[in-house]
Structures are given as structure tokens and as C-alpha cells.
Amino acid sequence: MDHEVTLLLKELETHDVYRLIVNKPSGFHLEPGRHVKLAIDSPELRERARSFTPVSLNADGVLEFLIKRYPDHPDGMTRHISEIQSGQRLLMSAPRGHIGYKGRGTFVAAGTGITPFLAIIRSLRMQGALAGHRLIFANKSPRDVISEAELRRDFGENAVFLAEHDPSSDFRAGRVDRTLLAETIDDFGETFYVCGPPPFTKSVSHQLEELGANPQSLVA
């Protein structure tokens, strides 16, 4: 691993998503959308690194992560991360990955798939460049939505929030499908940012291509 960092703060973002703040190493440069590998610095866990995307900006003095606890995952890594306390030392790689800003378009995310886009969205907001972008954000229920207030403020009427279960008046019931995409998007020549569980990403990308999106304009 390239860096050692220390957990400064851990708090709940939703009922099963934790916000973790760690110190930012000297000289660490982060492009919005890139991810890192994190591991807990203990004899039994330091070799079990997993990928997470910082949602903070490069100008921030710390690194912020939003990590969902998956108690049933075989390796239990997110459970271990959710149980650590302030002062715990973590091992972290240099930034990596291909997700980044490629131009005006629509963000389509499911669940924690929003995390690679949060830093991009925050960067656009800081530049005053969010106008003309759109968000489609699907979750199992309203209580699962990450950064809901921030995203509603940023996108306003240019956002569609979906919930499979118990949708309130601020949510559209159901999942992202071809009908929703056709109703919501008026320019399939723009850039599309797609992230979520692999079946979601594959399905949405395929539907976008069927509706006229250029495969080269898909960031997924």
C-alpha cells in the first residue's frame, strides 16, 4: 500500500452507510471519480484491501468516504470497516480507475453507485457548472438514499429519485427502465455516467445504447 492514514471521524449517513473521514497524505492528488484501495492495518486484515471512492474534493484537507455495511458479504470487509473507531490506522493505495468527468450529461446511479459521482458533482457545483446536468438515482427505499438533501439542492427539477419500496411523494416508484430513460432524457447524444451493481450498470448501459446513446459516451 502507498499510504498510511488515520480514521478521524466515523458517523452514520443512512441506517447502513457510514461516513468516514481520514487524514489526507501529503502530496496526495485526487481526481473526482477515482477510487482507492483501503485495508485495516491489523495482522489479519491488512491483506484484505477493497476499493472505495472518496467523495471529497482534491482541495479538501481530508478524505471522505461513504461506505455501506454489507453484513452478509463473504469476506465481511465492510462490516469490519463499519466497526472501527477513531484513531484506527488504515492502509490506502494511490488513486486509480477510469471514472471521471467527460462532459455535460446525465448521472444514472443505484444505491452506493452514487459515490463515484459525488466528487464530480461537488466539483461541478464549486465551478458553477452544474447547469444542464441531470440525475437519475434509484434505491430500494427512501431511507437508503445517500446525500439526498445535497443532491436535491444541486439538481432541483433535473433529478428523478426512485424507490422500489415505500416511495413517498418525492419519489417515483419502481426501477430505472427503458420507459423512464426515454421520458426523462431528451438528448441521447450527451454523456452518460452509470454506476451501481453490475447487473444494473449492464442493463442501463444497454438500454441507453438502444435509445441512441453512443457507447463511447458511456462512463460506466
Automatic annotation (TrEMBL):
Lineage start: Bacteria, Pseudomonadati, Pseudomonadota, Gammaproteobacteria, Chromatiales
Regions annotated as coiled coil: none
GO molecular function, one term: oxidoreductase activity
Protein name: FAD-binding FR-type domain-containing protein
One Pfam assignment: FAD_binding_6
InterPro entries: Cbr1-like_FAD-bd_dom, FAD-bd_FR_type, FNR_nucleotide-bd, MRET, OxRdtase_FAD/NAD-bd, Riboflavin_synthase-like_b-brl
FAD-binding FR-type domain boundaries: 1-102
